[in-house]
Design a protein that fits this description.
Layout lengths: L1 H28 L7 E8 L10 E4 L2 E11 L6 E8 L9 E6 L6 E6 L11 E3 L1 E3 L4 H10 L5
Amino acid sequence: MSEDVTEIVVGAAVIAVAAAFLVYAAGYVGQDARTDSYQLHASFRNVGGVSRGTDVRLAGIKIGTVTAMELDPEDYRAKVTFSIDRTVTIPADSAVRVAVDGLFGGYHFQIDPGADLESLGDGDFIEDSQGSINLLTLLTRVLSGDAER
């Protein structure tokens, strides 16, 4: 009989922990991520290697993530939206580029800050952008002596 009571108590504890976890997780489901961040946009020729959720870094430190990517049908460029931590101010003349984490690492967006006294705000567009470089194509060009293209 004592085994039955022990099993019931342990089962009730497991159910209580699972319910507490679900309540905790449900609190984050409807939360708007933009309350503590702001959106920036940029346009790229090539964003190969990156996707939604990719890190945005400044000086190697993560300051945001990619929230949306879409193809602009007018100029066939990739339009990328970034969510940036509201505590980070970025000068208006900053540049953004696709960077690689080492030779075989993943990709991320790197913001290179400018020197402008004005900062980018919610919904602003970063004009200076550089897309990803295909390392295999670059290596082939160097080895073939056609590096000037």
